[in-house]
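Researcher: Please generate the 3D structure of the following complex. Treat every line as part of one assembly.
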Amino acid sequence: MQQHIVSAFTDELDQLSATLLRMGGMAEAMIRDACKAVVKGDTELAKTVIRRDAELDKLESECERGAVRVLALRQPMASDLRMVIGAIKLAGTIERIGDLAKNVARRSIKLDDSATKASMRGVKTMGKAVSRQLKSALDAYGRRDARAALEVIRQDDDIDSHYNALLRLMLSYVAEDPEQIDSRANVLFIVKNLERIGDHCANIAKVVHYIATGKQVLSEAEIALLASNASSED
Amino acid sequence: MASATPLITPVVRAERTDNPIKIDCRNINVFYADNQAIHDISLLIPDRAVTAFIGPSGCGKSTFLRCLNRMNDTIDIARVDGKIMMDGADINDPAIDPVLLRSRVGMVFQKPNPFPKSIYDNVAYGARIHGLASGKSDLDRIIEKSLHRAGLWEEVKDRLAAPGTSLSGGQQQRLCIARAIAVNPEVILMDEPCSALDPIATARIEELIDELRERYCIVMVTHSMQQAARVSQRTAFFHLGKLIEVGDTETIFTNPTNQRTQDYITGRFG
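Model: Done. Output below.
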């Protein structure tokens, strides 16, 4: 896109984008490490994830300050306005993802050895799927790519089916051996947190779609329609 | 050079407006001698709404505005082609008296230009030449009503005999608006009405415009995009004598269709 006549304006928007992408990268690493800590039982790694969350919170405030500053001093319009409003929403969403990754890390410390291999495999697969979703959403943001954003929204269903499968597995374990309920509940909360992260990735993609096109994505039907329109434009 | 802009014209004509159309401009071309200032502009202007014209200097927005009350008639080398229908009647019809037209289409300029007369006589001027008042008390009533609508009455009611030029800039501009309103116009054209005013006087005028739009069709040229965003319901973007995009103000400022509009309103014009 063409530069602004006032180059400091372009710099400020670029700065905002860069901070968001940095937050996104951090959140991605937190998800990865939190899942690793769960699977490997690595308490030290879990603790670093918990510590990193504070840094993410700081970056979120930085983003918000930057966005308020641009609104106050530059009165952005059209795509710039959408970018700034989007930045505020994205910063909040990524911060939430950080919180959820932190929760996963916390739960990992409480896990005992009784967790089954099947459930650990489930966490590993789901963790991978979720961090891939986040990466795709952030890539879509970096390129302001509406079509890639729609793809991310659609893929959230995959994560939901992972979650449902694991949920059923945990319930069957509990039914088999009610004594183990504490441990199973921990695993259940971990996968629930991952599933919530998936939802937030879809939210990021919705904001990216709005930034890129000015159109809000509301319903499933709309997503399908937009995706089919996008592919017929080829 | 009659350039082909068929892509733009049909879009504009298909544009929906909630209010009835007051002015229907069709294929307007304006020439100053050999220079073409306006290229085939078609535009619908709704009644009882504010339509803002935006665009860089020299884009033709003021020229186009001046077509709407035949102000270009006063320039010998200017020629206007195309049809401007106001309530279905062509304003350029030779049978139409431009003086009468201008009583229906009032105008407010960039710099407040009160006559060197009293506040009272400034507002009374148009009503007198058009014979709108049946007597002194009727004229008094018109003056009070106009000054009221222009939001100036409380400030000047005790000194109506004072010269119009003794008022502050913002008050003078409101006096000019009162003068325009006094002849009962249907349309009010404003050519950068606030660019010589401070922010508080500007806010007063904007508040006034917002009240006036309930009765009048208002067309305003402004260099301030924030002002267009604040006071208008429709915005038209002009560039190099062409109408690039017209639409609801909210859409133009959040999600314009045309790249040039986008570049202009985001401050990227190269």
